[in-house]
Amino acid sequence: MAKILIVDDERSVRELLYQYTKSQGYDSVTAESGKAALNVFDEHQPDLMIVDLRVGDMNGLEIIQETKKRNPNLAVIMVTGHGTVETAVEAMRLGAFDYLTKPFQLEELGAIISSALNTYKKAAIKANPASASITSKGVHIVAESEVMKRIQRLIDRLAQRPTPLLLEGESGVGKRTLARVLHMHRGKGATPFKVLACGALPEALIEQELSGGGGSRGILERAAGGTLVLDEVDTLSPRLQSLLQNTLEANRSGNGGIQLISTVSKKLDSLVKDSKFRPDLFFKLAVIPLSVPPLRERKEDIIPLAEHFLEELHGTIKDGPKKISTSAKKLLEKYPWPGNVGELQNAVERAFALAGADAVTEKELPPKLRDGTASLALTRNQNAEGTKLPVGEQLSPFVRDMERKFIRATLESSGGSKEQAASILGISLATLYRKMDS
């Protein structure tokens, strides 16, 4: 059993990562400071460390440096809410396996943990053939609708063909999950699964990841032999599109058998027609395009997905409701889920936290599910303000003002969750922050 050291000065984050890694079968220990981390490290000798950039008494990079002196084979994952090119490059130079920028999905962290442990275990096996191997966790598609079953069958067929795949669909429909399923079906659980978050990272960091250099390996090199997901690739600027095209072309014959998967929230061919996306890059990425329908068009999947999320939570927390009441199921099926699977998962997590020991009832579900659809609620809020049109003034300030009001209303209906609001609005988290600050 692999042992993981979690270093973060935020108690809620430490507890969340501790519970998650324990639920995945790892032996986890935690530390709230750099000094404590070094003491815990010496006592427990972990195989992998998850460390935040800002811990309080020590910088996360300093902790990496000190622990790597003690064990050069330690697998390290850097986590930061303040991602910069310099931080990423320095973490990689010091020997970090990968880094994650907040907010991130636990499933994404789980994939990186599995990949890191297997990578370092391979090196240990090469040095000592008698050492044991680490197996990675499997993932699967939860679906009852015929359209998702067809997608599952197509994923199965593509598993033995490393052909570039383009996943199209609204934010939150589960494109990253499908990418992980394809990765695991290819038998690549012991190889890298890398995600380049094109819509969330700064341009300079994306450029660094694509081009490499500066003492760090580029993301194509780190993904060699595994899977590279270009998430929200439609958000790339023309300059980064050109860089990506050139990088893929330069690595065409030496990419180590990478399975390239791109995800978009908009129809990429429409962006090509509007001269907003390079046609040569489009044809390179969209060898096999696959459209993932929104949750409102596959209602048969709502309850199976909700029950799956509830089961996952119960497996992690070991306490709480194990089922969903009939009345709650009816509300879940009636709601249109503009934020798709991501919004459904958020609603189940909320209900799980509020429900008693028996079952999730309609009382624990978000109020918007009981009061009507999100769109109707937003319409009522808008009408209540009695908007007055500023005839005679310029259009741009009015549009920006209305956009901010719409974003605020969506945030309010999402309980203040920026991630969920971005999913509902169909924009990236980076775009949401930019529009809020404009």
- From the 3D coordinates, which CATH architecture of the largest domain would you assign? 3-Layer(aba) Sandwich
The largest sheet is: 5 strands, parallel
Name the CATH superfamily assignment of the largest domain: P-loop containing nucleotide triphosphate hydrolases
In angstroms, what is the radius of gyration? 23 Å
The amount of beta strand, in percent, is: 5-15%
- CATH C-level class of the largest domain is Alpha Beta
Tell me the number of structural domains. 3
Tell me which oligomeric state these chains represent. single chain
Arrangement of strands in the largest sheet: 2-1-3-4-5
Task: Summarize the entry for a quick read.
51% of the residues lie in helices and 12% in strands.
Question: Any descriptors?
Answer:
single chain, 438 residues, alpha/beta, Rossmann fold, Helicase, Ruva Protein, domain 3, 3 domains, five-stranded parallel β-sheet, 20 helices, globular
Protein architecture, described:
This protein has helices spanning 11-23, 34-44, 60-70, 85-93, 106-127, 146-158, 175-185, 203-211, 219-222, 238-250, 268-273, 279-285, 302-317, 326-334, 340-354, 367-371, 374-385, 395-413, 418-425, 429-437; strands at 3-7, 27-31, 48-52, 75-80, 98-101, 165-168, 193-197, 227-231, 259-264, 288-291, 323-324, 359-360. Helices cover 51% and strands 12% of the residues. The protein is α/β, with parallel strands linked by helices and 438 residues long. Mean pLDDT is 80; it is low at 122-138 and 373-386. The strands form three sheets. A five-stranded parallel sheet has the order 2-1-3-4-5, with helices on both faces. Strands 7-8-9-6-10 form a five-stranded parallel sheet. The chain folds into three domains: 3-127, Response regulator (Rossmann fold, 3-Layer(aba) Sandwich), CATH 3.40.50; 146-293, P-loop containing nucleotide triphosphate hydrolases (Rossmann fold, 3-Layer(aba) Sandwich); 297-437, Orthogonal Bundle (Helicase, Ruva Protein, domain 3).
